[in-house]
């Protein structure tokens, strides 16, 4: 077991995070015990950030004790790993619009002490701006996984919460922007939108794990 | 820390309440039921078709048992459908007394399902209600200058059914207007005036039915009939020619015996491929239990070959540079297979030069091996 990034470990081909709540699974993943510490396997086929890590992400945006804003948390597959990395001192604000997905996430948030569920549209930042600014001021990391046509626009709108020089990552689904245009062209177009607020570090395709997806790593200007 | 814990508990409670609010409404269950009803319809049709076909063959013995089981199941689906209809009727009458009396409960539930929620349906203008369920036709009209649709789900209303084709547009407008008024009455807890409105509606639609047909309408109708007749004739001609062709082919095959290519073609190919591998080809001993020839000329010794790539030498799936569009390894990290599509000639399995005309990019073989299915967890 060797450490790739802070809080992320690998053995052979698979990636792991330390389990915050030992002996508990979230989505039926494998558990591994080594030297008395329990690790949870990170399934790259179900998590876009996990897929990006496997395809060679340069930097990890999450670290222990960080305050994270997670847009499009869904049922909490990736969120559970982020909460593992962030640890007990950190906080993950999970925003999602779907009530059905939020039902599962609320169940997860009762167990894990660092999850803050928010049922809201990520486009209307006013719905949750008070919660974030009152609890921790500005945020250390921003992650977004929303399949909407104006994905990049939503990401830029949420940049107001991010600290200067902090990192963010956007999982881009090109199919929801255009069905007919080539995915490289779409990526170039979206990069231009992001450059208003961010400096782009890396863009990776998630090809064998997810089709027509990119992960864009950015730093706030 | 305590403050944070307090905030977390507050947020949890808030989301719980919001979720409960969403699922408390009656309309969600109506929508679920009406969607299920349309699915059950198609299942019911399929099962009935199969039972009828089987019944003609007169099953006996073991087959009789299996058949009777199927018959029982089809009946139970019909009962399920009936109970669902009852449920929808009861719920719709309680939730939308005016609307369900005017639109009939099941049709009303369909309109509700395509609107999404009670509030959204009740605040819709009449013209939108008129076209609910005809979205495809509407957007074709907006984009391609196709003809504008006159009615969506409303078309199935019993009052609309008896009207001739060219009077349905006018009636649909009238009906949709009345429905939208009824919806507003229901939403703001108005009185139940459905009987009067239904009477008024029937009168007006009868008046529309009694209107004399104008010469222009008559002309349009004749043209429409003509087009329908032409379409029908063309379809008939197509099926006839198809039948004639198959009849000719059958008679030809009877005269000339089995197809020569089918017998000889593949075997020659197998012989050649076996020789290239250093083996011999013996047709009689290598037939499998089905009596057909194995594809690669029988048992193989040494390395097995799949296509022209070797399994052992395959690039490992976990490569940090794989899929990276920038950086030093950029394009090299992609599969060397791509050369095949670049227009260069390459050598095939049988040591022949090929230019890649046989296989295009779209139907490249080995597709399933390289593009893994989305949700397989076996490998990792």
Sum up the structure in keywords.
heterodimer, A: 221 residues, alpha/beta, Rossmann fold, 7-stranded mixed beta sheet, 6 helices, B: 14 helices, 60% helix, extended
CATH class categorisation of chain A: Alpha Beta
Topology of chain A as a string of helices (H) and strands (E): EEEEEHEHEHEHEHEHEE
Q: What kind of assembly state do the chains in view correspond to?
A: heterodimer
User: How many strand segments of chain B?
Assistant: 2
The percent of residues in helical segments of chain A reads 25-40%
Q: How would a crystallographer describe the biggest sheet of chain B? A: 2 strands, antiparallel
CATH topology of chain A: Rossmann fold
Low-confidence stretches of chain A: none
Shape of chain B: extended
Main β sheet profile of chain A: 7 strands, mixed
Count of strand segments of chain A: 12
- CA-atom Rg of chain A in angstroms: 17 Å
What is the SS-derived class of chain B?
mainly alpha
| Terminal-residue CA separation of chain B | 39 Å
Total of helices of chain B: 14
Overall average pLDDT of chain A: 93
Compile the SSE list and pairings.
The complex is a heterodimer of chains A (221) and B (380).
Chain A: E1 2-5, E2 8-11, E3 14-18, E4 31-34, E5 37-42, H1 48-54, E6 67-71, H2 77-86, E7 91-96, H3 99-111, E8 115-119, H4 126-136, E9 139-144, H5 151-157, E10 162-173, H6 183-194, E11 198-205, E12 213-220
Parallel strand pairs in A: 6-7, 6-9, 7-8, 9-10
Antiparallel strand pairs in A: 1-2, 2-3, 3-5, 4-5, 10-12, 11-12
Chain B: H1 2-24, H2 27-56, H3 62-95, H4 97-103, H5 105-115, H6 118-122, H7 126-130, H8 135-144, H9 158-161, H10 168-187, H11 194-210, H12 215-256, H13 260-276, E1 346-347, E2 353-354, H14 367-370
Helix pairs in contact in B: 2-3, 2-5, 3-4, 3-5, 4-5, 4-10, 4-11, 10-11
